[in-house]
């Protein structure tokens, strides 16, 4: 009962966070490219409880959509029309840009934002190819600007706690990882529309590009190892474009550290759940096998709602941990992964050391892994941006 009450309390505050009484006078001013569905969760709501962040502008191609979005989210400056993204980048009152455009546009608009002198928080995956990802990192370094790929779940203290348990070697060497992120089949259009950006090859769609980056990043994060080879990969094509867009992907990886890993991602697992009347449960779990036992991290993608870290030494009783705040007091029980991510982003921009940060070449590795999985599954690599030049 107490568990349900605290879940409800977290849910309430997560969606309606207590706003800070006043923003700092020179708070970081964010502009958003596109009236994207993810922006309220990933930036707008988290910003309300951060004294050093204001969302100052949004650009959306359609005037009515732009105005409605800005009104709903109380964003003072609105750009619309065919040139609206560039207008937002040219706005001297914007310090940082949030880029939640379709994957295939991440590269172009992040490069343009960096060239306009803005820090960038870009949605995952950072680009459609590893070559693009490398260029983006190089450009951010050259310009001395912050560029962060929004692998938000790694910023949550529960994720860091799992890594800490592995690295404490309490259970010895890491051997195997099983990482699943899969959704049940839901009535058509309930979650993703048929023309969703995720199903469009030219925009960098596909489940491995989208949901796949969660388990793939988890394997890198928990193993601290790079890919040696993709042993096998089997895709199930999406009905819209089955040869190029994967609805599901099952893959077996061998890492340089000799850890082996299985990944399963699916937009629409077939079949029904209990009693054949409700859909199957979402699969969102990291199962780690170590020399001396196992760790299960349930709901690693949205740990704020609910999660469990089950540590089971071989032959002994399991213990369950739940971690919503850092031990030193950073965070609140209801802070979402995005809120923790925003804290780190602002710290970095302000020259402070964030609690945690991605490794420098993570976005490149991410895309190299994705490319290797597609190649092994005999699916085409995602298209290179038409904006790409071999050097910038
Ligand atoms: N971190 C996370 O938890 C999540 C991350 N994401 C990532 O965020 C990104 C966006 O996802 P989501 O918010 O669901 O997508 P949406 O379709 O809701 O938003 C994408 C936005 O891109 C703009 N856009 C520009 N060109 C095109 C085009 N040719 N076709 C369609 N849209 C275009 C549109 O803005 P406008 O028309 O207003 O100009 C649109 O609002 C993806 O990279 C996805 O991987 C998504 C969900 C969760
Ligand atoms: O980032 C994401 O997280 C949840 C998924 O369901 C979604 O498709 C994806 O974009």
Automatic annotation (TrEMBL):
The protein's superkingdom reads: Eukaryota
Keywords in alphabetical order, please: Oxidoreductase
Record EC number: 1.1.1.179
Tell me where in this chain the Gfo/Idh/MocA-like oxidoreductase N-terminal domain is found.
28-147
The record's catalysed reaction(s) read: D-xylose + NADP(+) = D-xylono-1,5-lactone + NADPH + H(+)
Q: What class of enzyme is it?
A: oxidoreductase
* Gene3D superfamilies, per the entry: Dihydrodipicolinate Reductase, domain 2, NAD(P)-binding Rossmann-like Domain
Query: Which Pfam families does UniProt cross-reference here?
Result: GFO_IDH_MocA, GFO_IDH_MocA_C3
**Domain GFO/IDH/MocA-like oxidoreductase intervals:** 160-271
State the family named in the UniProt similarity comment for this chain. Belongs to the Gfo/Idh/MocA family.
For this entry, the protein name equals D-xylose 1-dehydrogenase (NADP(+), D-xylono-1,5-lactone-forming)
Organism equals: Rhodofomes roseus
């Amino acid at each position: 009962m107490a568990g349900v009450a605290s879940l409800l309390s977290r849910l309430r505050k997560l969606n309606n966070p207590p706003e800070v009484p006043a923003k700092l006078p020179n708070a970081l001013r964010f502009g958003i490219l596109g009236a994207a569905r993810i922006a309220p969760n990933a930036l707008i709501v988290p910003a309300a409880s951060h004294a050093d962040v204001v969302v100052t502008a949004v650009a959306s191609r359609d005037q009515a959509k732009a105005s409605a979005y800005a009104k709903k989210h109380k964003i003072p400056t609105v750009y619309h029309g065919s040139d609206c993204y560039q207008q937002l980048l040219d706005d001297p009152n914007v310090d940082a840009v949030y880029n939640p455009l379709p994957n295939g546009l991440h590269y172009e608009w992040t490069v343009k934002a960096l060239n306009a002198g803005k820090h960038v928080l870009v949605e995952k995956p950072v680009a459609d190819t590893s070559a693009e990802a490398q260029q983006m990192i190089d450009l951010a370094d050259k310009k001395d600007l912050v560029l962060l790929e929004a692998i938000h779940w790694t910023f949550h203290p529960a994720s860091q706690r799992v890594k800490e348990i592995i690295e404490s070697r309490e259970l010895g060497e890491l051997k195997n990882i099983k990482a699943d992120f899969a959704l049940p089949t839901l009535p058509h259009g309930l979650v993703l529309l048929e023309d969703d950006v995720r199903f469009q090859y030219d925009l960098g769609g596909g489940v491995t590009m989208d949901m796949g980056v969660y388990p793939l990043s988890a394997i890198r994060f928990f193993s601290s190892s790079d890919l040696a080879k993709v042993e096998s990969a089997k895709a199930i094509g999406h009905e819209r474009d089955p040869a190029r867009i994967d609805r599901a992907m099952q893959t077996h990886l061998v890492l340089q550290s000799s850890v082996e890993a299985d990944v399963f991602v699916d937009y629409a697992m077939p079949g029904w759940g209990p009693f054949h009347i409700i859909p199957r449960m979402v699969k969102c779990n990291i199962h780690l096998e170590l020399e001396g036992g196992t760790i299960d991290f349930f709901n690693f993608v949205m740990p704020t709602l609910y999660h469990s870290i089950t540590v089971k030494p071989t032959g002994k009783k399991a213990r369950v941990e739940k971690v919503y705040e850092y031990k030193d007091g950073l965070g609140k029980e209801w802070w979402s992964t995005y809120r923790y991510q925003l804290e780190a982003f602002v710290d970095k921009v302000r020259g402070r050391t964030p609690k945690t940060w991605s490794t420098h070449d993570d976005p490149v590795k991410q895309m190299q892994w994705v490319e290797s999985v597609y190649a092994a599954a005999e699916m085409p690599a995602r298209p290179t941006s038409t904006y790409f030049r071999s050097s910038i």
